[in-house]
Write a structure and sequence with these properties.
Strand content: under 5%
Structural class: mainly alpha
Number of strands: 0
Order of helices and strands: HHHHHHHHHHHHHHHH
Number of domains: 2
Distance between the termini: 51 Å
Shape: globular
Largest sheet: none
């Protein structure tokens, strides 16, 4: 009887609202649908269409990174739970940011269309402006639920949005909507997610303009913003170079090989990061020494698993591309073999970032990004000149490896050191 009761308790614990099981289920479901959507659309639309959509999403990523407030992470990491009035100020800030980013993207769409040689894709770029607007008006209660480790609730919303995104995107693609199908699916999915944050999450902030009461978040969030700006240069610099110099078709091959490697390697680590950031934050508030031991354990497990997976993926790269994407994408295989290394390093970085931000050392992640940026700016021009798009990919490997080394050093030397301001 005792063993039966123990087994029942284990099942209940594994499916509790704060159990990491929900993060795993969410990521398996969401990333699986993302994989199905991107791979199916890649096969249907081809490299040029995927490259055009990538440039539209690149514009969104650049604008959102430059305007990142860091407030969501500050709400999750802060010592005290936010009040409703503080949440109102958070919502006002994020909603205003979403509106401004959307207007900026619409205004700059003609310039982007001209610079990246997209031809008649102006409306595609303008449609992408809806994404930051929809995300900006979501309820900040989402971050309170994350802070409280309500992973079951978050998983339900994310899985519903991903399912709708995938279904709508594929339906429009089969209906002949072309590159627009991917963006339409994303917009409908984000709209559902935003609606559910207001309908199902508490505490709901009052919908009114409020700007005061969140000054205590600035010390932490400023490093998140700085990190976002630097990461913008790091994560989008290579895509800008490839898209500007080589055009949408080459960018499509570059993006698809990167995306496939990301789905197979990095996405699982980012899923773990969703669990680890609030978990490390809670553990550090309780016992900093235990949190330091916990991150070492996670790093050892993740590194061993990634090493084996990288070897396997590089060995099966050609048949994998032939089976999933078809002959039109075989030129991307050499890039994929490089990107599996990059994404493995990125997976380790995701764990390190979760810990460093959880203990208040967001500055260390920004410094790592600066190191990576300096290295990239130094080696990308000659690497591109001599080796083209392959040189860009290997340059990313060197830069990411340097950033990971710095963050690992800061992590291993912390022990029970006090939090950074």
């Amino acid at each position: 009887m005792r063993s039966i009761r123990g087994a029942a308790f284990s099942v209940r614990a594994g499916l509790g609202p704060s159990a990491p099981t929900w993060v795993l289920l969410q990521q398996l479901f969401v990333r699986g649908l993302v994989a199905v959507k991107f791979l199916a659309l890649g096969r249907i639309l081809g490299p040029s269409a995927i490259g055009s959509v990538s440039i539209a999403l690149l514009a969104v990523a650049i604008a959102e990174s430059l305007s990142d407030t860091g407030l969501p992470q500050a709400v999750i990491q802060g010592g005290d739970a936010p009040t409703r009035s503080e949440l109102a100020a958070v919502w006002t800030t994020l909603a205003t940011r979403g509106v401004l980013v959307a207007l900026l993207l619409i205004a700059l769409a003609p310039v982007m269309n001209s610079q990246f040689h997209l031809g008649g894709a102006l409306a595609l770029l303008q449609l992408a402006a809806a994404l930051p607007l929809i995300r900006g008006i979501a309820s900040p209660a989402y971050y309170v639920v994350q802070r409280n480790r309500g992973f079951q609730h978050i998983a339900g919303i994310e899985m519903a949005a991903a399912f709708v995104d995938c279904c709508i995107g594929l339906a429009f693609a089969f209906g002949g909507a072309g590159a627009y199908s991917l963006l339409i699916g994303m917009i409908v999915g984000e709209t559902l997610k935003t609606t559910l944050t207001w309908a199902t999450m508490k505490p709901r902030p009052p919908i009114r303009a409020a700007w005061s009461g969140i000054g205590h978040y600035i010390g932490f969030s400023r490093w998140i913003w700085a990190g976002s700006v630097v990461n913008l240069l790091l994560n989008q610099f290579d895509k800008v170079v490839v898209g500007k110099l080589l055009g949408p078709a080459q960018l499509g091959a570059y993006q698809m090989s990167s995306k496939l490697a990301q789905m197979l390697l990095t996405d699982a680590a980012f899923a773990m990061g969703q669990y680890l950031f609030p978990t490390f934050s809670a553990q550090h508030r309780h016992d900093a020494r235990v949190a330091a031991r916990l991150v070492r354990l996670y790093l050892a497990i993740v590194a061993a698993g990634l090493a084996m997976f990288v070897v396997l993926l590089r060995a099966i790269a050609e048949p994998l591309f032939a089976l999933i994407l078809g002959a039109a994408w075989m030129s991307a295989v050499p890039l994929f073999k490089i990107f599996v290394i990059n994404m493995a390093i990125g997976a380790l970085i995701a764990v390190l970032v979760s810990y460093l931000r959880a203990v208040g050392d967001a500055k260390a992640t920004t410094h790592a990004s600066l190191i990576q940026m300096v290295i990239l700016f130094a080696i990308v021009p000659p690497a591109t000149h001599y080796w083209g798009v392959t040189g860009v990919a290997w340059s990313m490997t060197v830069g990411m490896g340097s950033a990971a080394t710095w963050m690992l050093y800061r992590t291993l030397r912390r022990h029970d050191a006090p939090s950074f301001p």
